[in-house]
């Protein structure tokens, strides 16, 4: 399941590439036809992420709320400026054509799939149409003159009012990017301090703290030296504060790099190897049976709340 860093990156992409543009909204799959009709032809005014949810605000007091869930992902295609210029020059509105058989100056569409992980590709060549044909079960397509964003497999995709958006936001716990470190800590402490829920379960409760998923949970508890089955009410305030501070530290790294990185003390070649290899990014997650990087004890795996 995409964790908070991924959704913040997706919202940032919408802010940089789509906000301020009039958007054609459709539902190629057909499961969001009514919602798409409400949003179609409106300007996207803003896009924010809180935890694992994204809220895109359109003119006319309407919001698109998206929760990617386990399988959801956005696929972005961007018509590069030289492609658009070449299409205009050739009189090929809505298409892009290669200026030569080489790649230099050739029109191209860059594509990024953004979900639990991001994958970027570049498509180039002659005769490809813009926008690209929908691939797979596209729940909603947001299209401007140069950006095409396709959403597949979300748990939630709905058009809602500002009041409904506010109600959803009120139910979410603090997010370091939205609340800031100090205010977020106060909210987290007040929500969590007296809960008997095991801390490993509480960190996954989006009403307690927003954005943490299975990977961040396992890694943060290891970094703090806290047993995930410890009732939250038995933790000292400094232990709770250490968890919150670590979330404030790790989330921006994930937003910047696009991957979940929790081995943060590495430098030089070791750091580069870690960024390039999933197997090297974490202390414990995905390493069941392997030796602990600190003490050498084999890492054990247990299920908590179905995860």
UniProtKB/TrEMBL annotation:
InterPro entries: FPG_cat, FPG_N, H2TH_FPG, Ribosomal_uS13-like_H2TH, Znf_DNA_glyclase/AP_lyase
Entry GO MF terms: class I DNA-(apurinic or apyrimidinic site) endonuclease activity; damaged DNA binding; oxidized pyrimidine nucleobase lesion DNA N-glycosylase activity; zinc ion binding
Domain FPG-type: 283-307
An example Gene Ontology biological process: base-excision repair
Pfam families reported in the protein's UniProt record: Fapy_DNA_glyco, H2TH
EC numbers, comma separated: 4.2.99.18
CDD domains (alphabetical): AcNei1_N
Keyword DNA-binding among UniProt keywords: yes
Keywords: DNA damage, DNA repair, DNA-binding, Glycosidase, Hydrolase, Lyase, Metal-binding, Multifunctional enzyme, Zinc, Zinc-finger
PROSITE patterns to which the protein is assigned, alphabetical: ZF_FPG_2
PANTHER family: ENDONUCLEASE 8
Entry's family note: Belongs to the FPG family.
Name this polypeptide is given: DNA-(apurinic or apyrimidinic site) lyase
Organism of origin: Brevibacterium senegalense
